[in-house]
Amino acid sequence: MSALIDPIVGRYVTVTLSGRTHRIYFEEAGQGRPVLCLHTAGADTRQWRHLMNDAEVTATNRLIAFDMPWHGKSLPPEGFETEEYLLTTEAYIETVLALVEALGLEKPVLAGCSMGGRISLQLAALHADRFSGFIAIEASDFQPAWYDIDWFHRPDAHGGEMGAALVSANISPYAPNAERWNTLWMFMQSGPGVFRGDLSFYTKDESLIPRLPQIDTAKTPVHILVGSYDLTCTPEDAQRTADAIPGATCTVMEELGHFPMSEHPEGFRPFFIDALDKMPA
Amino acid sequence: MLDKWTAMGAALEARPHLLRLGRLFSETVLIQLGEDEYYLTFEKGHLADVTPGPSRKTPWRFALRTDADALKAFWQPIPEAGFHDVFGLVKIGRARVDGDILVLVKNLRFFKEFLALGRDMGRGLEVSA
Questions:
Q1: Which residues of B touch A162 (CB under 8 A)?
Q2: For residue B20, which of A54, A103, A167, B35 sits 20 to 30 Å off, Cα-Cα?
Q3: Which top-rank group of organisms is this from (chain B) (predicted)?
Q4: Is residue A123 part of a domain?
């Protein structure tokens, strides 16, 4: 009898972001082409656990994922107790580039979901030279919030539980029940105000829209994946975004929602493998 | 339709986790299906009363306004995209939520799981609005 031990290895790396020290948690599995994976708002690296445990994927790909500051096992910076967490495009870009640098990743594929997909497209427009290609999942140019982001940080209610109840709207009914709830648990666990601060970036910053035509897919391919059951980034939102990027491709995943790698790993893996095949080897 | 709400109330009683989630929820919710209205009164997570409307003198905390076909699609075992969630119905223009939406959001998991009981209860309780 031997215990089942995941091949995923987790460590910490210290980086400086806007002059402040951050100890960032990251995980990796596999070898070969580096693929840097970005989690959604209000969640963490655990969203990528299935692909990191997928021997076919990791046979030729080194998957790396990290918890954004304030998320998962990455602590907030010193002095956080008097700060309002509000993610910005600039801080997000700085964080991703710092991790690429600190981990010595040579032109990784960047795979991001939701707000991670949004920042992947920003990086495709502004820092394409640091990456080999972009897999933007549930990613779009911009959507204003159809909810009040202040709901998710209040003294009289549990923001994580309310956030989970709201984002469950984006999970496909085809998702296995256990993975639906594993996915929601991460939202329930997110720190006070963190989901709200992520949504501030996601629902208020429109700066990507004019940058989309600048993306040169001849140098760095862009493939967008979107689930039919995603109410936040709908297939129409994703297709509109792909249409604005010359040469970008877009695939609609009929039975999936907004968190495909986490909510329905079996359903998502063929789409992700296909997306990896579209990226430079 | 009244039978359906009553059956959902009974299904709620069989789910202790849901009663626990709703333990602070004592409100009247208006469900409007086209011209038909139903006032669902919850007491500490239990569905204490269902009164058909229309009524101008029954206060309610929030309202879900939709139509019988949309609700029927919502209650399919595997709903089509958009029909799979209350806010999906809102997003595709088949429902509206009025009133004190913050009370709904604070009890969102409870209310969504209650409403989904119409799907989970199984067959034999067709919507006849």
A1: 105-106, 108
A2: A167
A3: Bacteria
A4: yes
